[in-house]
Specification:
globular; 29% helix; alpha/beta; five-stranded antiparallel β-sheet; 10 helices
Length: 289
């Protein structure tokens, strides 16, 4: 097999070989992976995505973002128009204005139990609750992305019936002001891992908490099974711990050069950094082959 080469790549480490078999589906994370740091999609990447679709390769955006933050790639999803959002908690139709096709919620009882557990295990933790209708958060939760429609109240009240936004819970967000991000993740998994799935994608100590068994990988597997696509026919790209399961599940997984050290260590194939269009470089190589 030939090595991946492009204007931004060189043969040999850290860049790796093309997939062993012709893929039928490309699954890519967005932030830190497909998108540049300024959240733009380069012309090169736009062209590569379109070329993949013309070649009969489906492209799925698989992200931790909620549906309302998908405008950046809405014009670049072809064919099916679907995207996997909220770390696998939702499948949305971007051609249909972000309409929810499938939802895998975090139950209210489990969410409340996780809040109680993390308050005890990591005092100072603050929470936000992402639902299909929007996000609500606690008064001391960092205002990463202010939502003028958010309800601001203690998490226990936001989880009570009749309070906060409506609709199923896609994920619970937990922020700690002092713990190291990876330490906070390990602590939370130990304390509450029997009630929910914990991961992270932020450089800060911000955890993303989904229903038990919900992940990018498990929802991607469902979408592929519906299409008769085997894991060996999937090429996946990612950069953070919330991508690890997807990169392992796919027949061919690529870690970005800028990826978290754990992702780089666990993923044999690497490509160029997000700002150097590493996803496009691999797609170009696949098309050329």
């Amino acid at each position: 097999m030939g090595t991946v080469t492009s204007a931004t790549e060189q043969p040999g480490p850290p860049f790796s070989r093309r997939p062993a078999a012709a893929p039928r589906l490309i699954a890519t994370d967005l932030d830190g992976t497909l998108l540049h740091d300024d959240k733009s999609v380069s012309d090169r990447t736009v062209a590569a995505l379109a070329a993949a679709e013309r070649a009969g390769i489906e492209v799925f955006f698989v992200t931790g973002r909620p549906a309302r933050w998908m405008d950046v790639v809405r014009d670049h999803v072809h064919g099916h128009g679907l995207a996997i959002c909220a770390n696998g908690a939702a499948v949305v139709d971007l051609h249909g204005g972000g309409r929810f096709i499938d939802v895998r919620p975090l139950g209210t009882t489990d969410a409340a139990a996780v809040v109680e557990t993390l308050r005890d295990a990591a005092p100072g933790t603050t929470f936000a609750i992402e639902r299909t209708s929007g996000i609500d958060y606690e008064p001391s939760y960092p205002p990463f992305h202010l939502d003028p429609g958010a309800v601001i109240a203690p998490a226990e009240e936001l989880l009570a019936e009749g309070r906060g936004s409506t609709g199923p819970i896609l994920k619970l967000l937990a922020h700690h002001p002092g713990l190291a991000p990876d330490d906070f993740l390990a602590l939370a998994r130990t304390a509450g891992g029997e009630r929910a799935s914990f991961t992270r994608s932020s450089p800060t100590a911000l955890l993303e908490i989904s229903g038990l068994g919900v992940s990018k990988a498990s929802t991607l597997a469902r979408c592929c099974a519906e299409r008769g696509i085997a894991p060996q026919e999937v090429v996946a790209f990612g950069d953070m711990p919330n991508d690890l399961e997807m990169l392992s599940w796919a027949g061919t997984g690529y870690a970005m050069a800028n990826a978290h050290p754990e992702v780089l260590a666990a993923t044999p194939r690497h490509t160029a950094a997000n700002n150097e269009d590493g996803v496009a470089a691999v797609i170009e190589s696949i098309i050329a082959a």
